[in-house]
Amino acid sequence: MKKLLVLQGLPASGKSTHAKELLAFAEEGTALRINNDELSLMLHGRTFTPGDPKASQLLGKIRAEIIRNAFRLGYQLVIVDNTNLGRRTLDSLKSLAEKCDAEFELDNSFLAVPIEECLRRNAMRENPVPEKVIWEMAKLIRE
Question: Best exposed site among 61, 70, 81, 97 by fewest CB in 10 Å?
Answer without folding.
Answer: 61
